[in-house]
Design a protein that fits this description.
By secondary structure, the chain is mainly alpha-helical. About 50% of the residues lie in helices and about 10% in strands. It has a domain of about 70 residues. The protein is built from 5 helices and 2 strands; from the N terminus they run ααβαβαα. It has a two-stranded parallel ribbon with strand order 1-2.
Length: about 100
């Protein structure tokens, strides 16, 4: 939600956000990559480029993801941090909408 001063306010409660983060950190998403690949699920992966150590880590991990999910469209977003929605705002929605329009 727009805070009226150029920032965003999360609509998720602290409890729900904490629970989601806890379970995300415990799960190994890579365990599910073969199922995503086998089902040919269209996949858009947007990656942060800031700070430089995040760019480097994302570049290293990308090769493994590409091998596991070959149908994925992987994009490094210049100048973005892991807060992609906040960083990109309208461009985030536009990027996803344009990508969705390309799916058969």
């Amino acid at each position: 939600m727009d805070d009226g001063h150029g920032g965003l306010i999360s609509r998720a409660t602290g409890t729900s956000r904490g629970a989601a983060m806890y379970h995300l950190m415990r799960a190994r998403q890579s365990d599910h990559w073969p199922a995503v690949a086998a089902a040919r699920i269209p996949t858009l992966l947007l990656l942060a480029t800031k700070p430089d150590d995040i760019r480097a880590a994302n570049a290293t991990a990308t090769a493994r993801f590409c091998d596991a999910v070959p149908q994925a469209d992987i994009r490094f977003i210049e100048g973005a941090t892991h807060a992609l929605i906040t960083d990109l705002r309208d461009d985030f929605g536009r990027t996803v909408a344009e990508w969705l329009a390309t799916i058969d």
